[in-house]
Write a structure and sequence with these properties.
It is a single chain. The protein is globular. It is α+β, with helices and mostly antiparallel strands and 105 residues long. The strands form two sheets. Strands 2-3-4-5 form a four-stranded antiparallel β-sheet, with no helix packed on it. Strands 1-6 form a two-stranded parallel ribbon.
Length: 105
């Protein structure tokens, strides 16, 4: 039975070592980034945030716990922006998506 490495344990301790009463101290964790469906929660889980259908969730109902197996969590970030900036980026993304997502590429 795999019990994880010392890095896993230390990472979990860092995440959960909040002060008493801190929501992080009793918050469930996941070592998977991206789309997460767990119980009542359906969120996009990032290294330092959770995004629900209404935007960034504070406090986050689920925390990301690095496993040490990948550096992906150090290369991705979700940044809060104003609505105009968000709409501009979304429009550019949707306009370019068919070019990137062509069969045979």
């Amino acid at each position: 039975m795999d019990r994880g490495s010392d890095n896993n344990v230390q990472g979990l301790l860092r995440v959960l070592s909040g002060a008493p009463g801190d929501p992080a101290a009793s918050c469930p964790g996941s070592n998977m980034l991206g789309d997460l469906r767990r119980g009542e929660h359906h969120v996009r889980l990032g290294p330092n945030c959770a995004i629900g259908k209404d935007g960034f969730m504070e406090p986050s109902p689920v925390r990301y716990v690095p496993s040490g197996a990948s550096s992906f969590d150090k290369r991705i970030a979700y940044v809060k922006v104003d609505e105009d900036t968000f709409l501009e980026v979304a429009a550019t993304f949707l306009r370019c998506l068919p070019q990137v997502n062509r069969p045979g590429r």
